[in-house]
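User:
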Amino acid sequence: EATGLLDYLHNTVTADSLRSELNQHYIFLGQQLIQNNKLGDAKEIYYKLRDRETGKTPIYGLPERRLFLGDAYALNKDYGEAEDVYNDLLTETVDADQIMVIKERISWLPPSDLSRIFSSVKEFIRVFTPTRIVLNPFSDYYLDNQKFRFWDSGLRLDAGFLRFLSLGAVYSRTFLSNSLINRNVAQYRFTGGISFSRYTYLKGSYGFLNISGEANRKIGEVSVGYNQPEGLSIALSYQNNDARMIFYSRGLLTSRINIDFFRLTAAYNFSDRTILDGYYNYFRLSDRNEGNDFQIRMGKRLLENGFFGYEYFFSDFSFESSVYYAAQDFNSHSFWSEWNWMLDKIELKLGGKIGYIPSKKFTVSELAGNVTYSPVKNLKIHFKLGYGNNLRYDSIYSGINSSLTANWGVF
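Assistant: Predicted structure:
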């Protein structure tokens, strides 16, 4: 009955805004049908919506819901239907990241007969051939009003094996400088990851840091997380590194300080209308200092393309340092906004915040813009530019940051 009513309204209204709102009701109805295990009815609705899409007016959220439909079929062990949904999405999708996600879903489906996997050399080679290869060149730049400069660029390679395993490598070169000296850093890391399920993962890296004029040192990182699109995401990570690679500070260039960096992040998206996210950082340094950062944000979609919300930030270290910024019982309250626009091959994002530090009676501000361009299938280019104004040890501190990355799914 609900489907019939929506069909009647869709055929009756002519305004694009009303039809767009009706499409979201269709998507919500399909979601409810999936929860009630009426997958065939949900598939009929989603494919009806797909046929209504045009290149200029895609229906927001439909690809993600169709992906969830495939997941629901897989959970019901209806692997044939799941593969059909995934393959349809694969032929229609041009987003490189989404293609990798879909291919990963397909790779998780069991073969029709497990006993035949190793029945021939051809099948054996197929199993141990990478299911995906991704190249990720990157470059990051930071400059502050204290004449500190950080410039990092490199290349990352990731390859997927055995349906659940990923292996890769990262090489980068970093240039650090202040008004008096500079340092060149080369970084070599091997990476790996295991997917325990569609949403749960374990990944890590291990390598070496080569800083000009100093002995090489080992670095490593490990993280475990749960990431469900349009729902809950949570991750816990640990990193052992040189403090110069974590704290952007002009005074650290001649100081060899080791840092253990623990981080917990979490986010929850309520039906794409309300978001709650935050993080907690804990730092333990070899100079016997330790500290923590905490941030929580709450926001709500008040306009079609805009989120608005509140942010609280807190930072505190055991003692101040002369070579890096170690906040002392610092907290701020801010209002933030984020805007998103989807064009044919371009995604634009603009965000900013303005806040207040009660203990210092100082106003903080940030502004950032992101552009994602998808010129061809399996290739995405990201550019980010940001500016921030804050306070450090009762002095005004500002910095500009930018990054340029590409994500190329070779296959």
